[in-house]
């Protein structure tokens, strides 16, 4: 009688991806603080959508989407226009909630191999 290996479970790969994503977000939070950003919210959920990190630098309120991908190209294509709009709407709602009257910005941070971080400021526009 031969014993076969259990097939990889979809939930276990999802859990690994979730754990890696959380590690990437923590790394980005640390990097942002070192660069002088003030972290206001993490994994902010609103009816409009979810924002990985909300930060402030000067008078600019920034929504930061974190992608844990092996290469930049994959990370850039991982954010659809629909997702971009949801993040923008969620940031606008958050700004209204806290009474922010300054500028809004949408950034992308890519965590690649070996924890290498690329920060693309103003990656797309608030429509």
Record the SSE blueprint:
Blueprint: H1 10-34, E1 38-45, E2 50-57, E3 60-68, H2 72-77, H3 81-98, E4 103-111, E5 117-124
Task: Give structural notes.
- There is one protein chain.
- The protein has 127 residues and is of the alpha+beta class.
- It has one domain (12-124): Trna Endonuclease, Chain: A, domain 1 (3-Layer(aba) Sandwich), CATH 3.40.1350.10.
- 39% of the residues lie in helices and 33% in strands.
- The protein is built from three helices and five strands, in the order H-E-E-E-H-H-E-E.
- It has a five-stranded mixed sheet, sandwiched between helices.
Number of domains: 1
CATH topology description: Trna Endonuclease, Chain: A, domain 1
CATH uppermost class: Alpha Beta
* Main sheet: strands, sense, barrel: 5 strands, mixed
Helix proportion range: 25-40%
Instruction: Tell me the span between the first and last alpha carbons.
Output: 63 Å
Number of helices: 3
Mean pLDDT: 86
Q: Helix/strand/pairing class, anyone? A: alpha+beta
Order of helices and strands: HEEEHHEE
Low-confidence segments: none
Keywords:
single chain, Trna Endonuclease, Chain: A, domain 1, five-stranded mixed β-sheet
Short characterization:
The protein is of the alpha+beta class and 127 residues long. It is built from three helices and five strands. The chain has a five-stranded mixed beta sheet with strand order 1-2-3-4-5, with helices on both faces.
